[in-house]
TrEMBL record:
Entry annotated with the keyword Disulfide bond: yes
Domain Thioredoxin: 32-195
Xref: InterPro entries: SCO1/SenC, Thioredoxin-like_sf, Thioredoxin_domain
Disulfide bonds: 70-74
Annotated signal peptide: 1-23
Organism: Halovibrio salipaludis
CDD domains recorded: SCO
Name this polypeptide is given: Cytochrome c oxidase assembly protein
Similarity-based family: Belongs to the SCO1/2 family.
Binding locations of Cu cation: 70, 74, 160
Gene3D superfamilies: Glutaredoxin
PANTHER family per record: ELECTRON TRANSPORT PROTIN SCO1/SENC FAMILY MEMBER, LINALOOL DEHYDRATASE_ISOMERASE DOMAIN-CONTAINING PROTEIN
Keywords: Copper, Disulfide bond, Metal-binding, Signal
Length: 199
């Protein structure tokens, strides 16, 4: 009898483990579920008003740190993400929001950030804040940024990560989009997250 109970216990454990291992999707992006904190911040939107994750609760949100004078990484990333959203079924596109956080508050006023994100399309929220708040937020997601030495015109470069963090409708960290991912792969992951949120 005890041997039967033991066998049933082992069988039950194996079934549970099998269910756990197959419960998550095979993502194209890096799965960061449980490895990063939930989406949490209070920043300034392009209209000058405070903005928090609750303002777009229920939507899949992509968090990207950059700056409007960025010559390469930022525009390429923004265009890539927008093209990925455009590849999704039309009924799903409004359920994804890109959060562009400028880490150059000295030059990037809310108005300037607004003009920048408007260039790339809809469903993009431009955000910024003071440097201390931005550094705290960057540290929360294990990244950083820095400023180069100003030239004779006062212009300077800003170093920052090209990481894109993806959060589900409940604000839980789910994915880290890899730089080598294709637009179709990004679109596929976003579509899966939207579907999961509807279940």
């Amino acid at each position: 009898m005890s041997r039967m109970i033991h066998s049933l216990s082992v069988l039950t454990l194996l079934l549970v483990l099998a269910g756990c291992s197959g419960s998550d999707t095979d993502w194209n992006a890096k799965n960061i579920r449980g490895l990063m904190p939930d989406l949490e911040f209070k920043l300034t939107a392009t209209d000058g008003e405070p903005f928090t994750p609750e303002d777009r609760a229920g939507q899949v949100r992509l968090l990207f740190f950059g700056f409007t004078n960025c010559p390469d990484i930022c525009p390429a990333t923004m265009a890539r993400l927008q093209n990925a959203v455009k590849q999704m079924p039309e009924a799903m596109r409004d359920e994804v929001t890109l959060l562009f956080v400028s880490v150059d508050p000295e030059r990037d006023t809310p108005e300037r950030v607004g003009e920048y994100v408007d260039f790339f399309g809809d469903n993009i929220v431009g955000l910024t804040s003071d440097e201390e708040t931005l550094r705290t937020l960057a540290k929360r997601y294990r990244t950083t940024f820095g400023y180069g030495k100003p030239d004779e015109n006062g212009d300077y470069d800003v170093s920052h990560s090209n990481a894109v963090y993806v959060f589900d409708g409940q604000g839980r960290a789910r994915l880290l989009i890899r730089s080598g991912q294709s637009i179709s792969q990004i679109s596929e992951d976003l579509e899966t997250l939207v579907r999961q949120g509807r279940d």
